[in-house]
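Now read these lines:
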Amino acid sequence: MAQCKRFEVRASEGGKVLFSADEDEIVIGADRLKVTGTEGAVFGHSVETPHIRAEPSQDLKLESPTRSLMMEAPRGVQVNAAAGDLKATCRKELHLQSTEGEIFLNADTIRLGNLPTGSFSSSPPSSSAPRQTIYELCVCPNGKLYLSPAGAGSTCQSSSNICLWS
C-alpha cells in the first residue's frame, strides 16, 4: 500500500505523463488505452470519447445487457457500413421518427415483406383463372400498408377489410 496526494507515471523519453492519479481524477495520457480482460471494460457512469475502435479484424460490440443503449449528439448521429449490411433488429416495434424533417429511403429496390393481401374479385373465382402477379400498394387510414390485386382501376377501397382487422 502506498499513500500520497498525487501519483504520476512518466515516459522515460520526453517525460510525458502516462498516468496520474489524485483525489479528484485519474488521467491516462498514453496515445492508446488497451483493456485486455475477457469481459472488456465496465463503466459505472457515462463515457465521453471522440473515438472507440476495435482491434483490426475484430468486431466492436456496445452492449447494455439489462437496459437500453443510447447514442445522442446535438448535431446528428451517423451510422455507416462502408462494405457491408446495416441491420436493425428488435423484438417489438421499430420506430423511425423525424420531428421536423422527412424520412428518406434511397435505394435501387425497397422491399416491404409480409404485407397482408386484401381480397378483391370482380368475378367469381375460377380454377382456370391466371394467378394474380400484379398488386397495388394501399394505405389504411391508420397508416397500415397492404396489397390489393391490381385491376383496371384502384381496388384499395374494395380490399379495406384489411383495415378493419387492424
